[in-house]
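Translate sequence into structure tokens.
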Amino acid sequence: MAKLTIDDLKKIKEKHKAAFTVREGGYRAKITVHMGTCGIAAGAREVMTALMDEMAQAKVEDVIVTTSGCAGLCSKEPMATVEIVNSPPVKYVQLNENKIKEIFKEHILNGEVVEKYAMVIGSETTY
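Result follows.
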């Protein structure tokens, strides 16, 4: 068996760094695609597929994608919530494949909220 060089070890470390970061909760962004039955009926699966394709093409490894059930706003589905570290969460509504791709490029990659698709920015807590 060939001996590993320092460069080989560095390559292995970088390859697996993102997986360890996500496992340890050290990701920089989290995207939740709401996939209750109303969301799925409105096209949430297609939104999720488009998002995953964009992430794969961009080779993004510090973003985690999750799903949730219904958020209680069926008429606004498909929806996704974007949470970036040290920024308020943003709930995007009435999404489709093109909109989630734009959100990914503008919000996740460039840090700019896409206000035209956002329903709420910040805390969703009611008192």
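Note: The chain has a mean pLDDT of 84.
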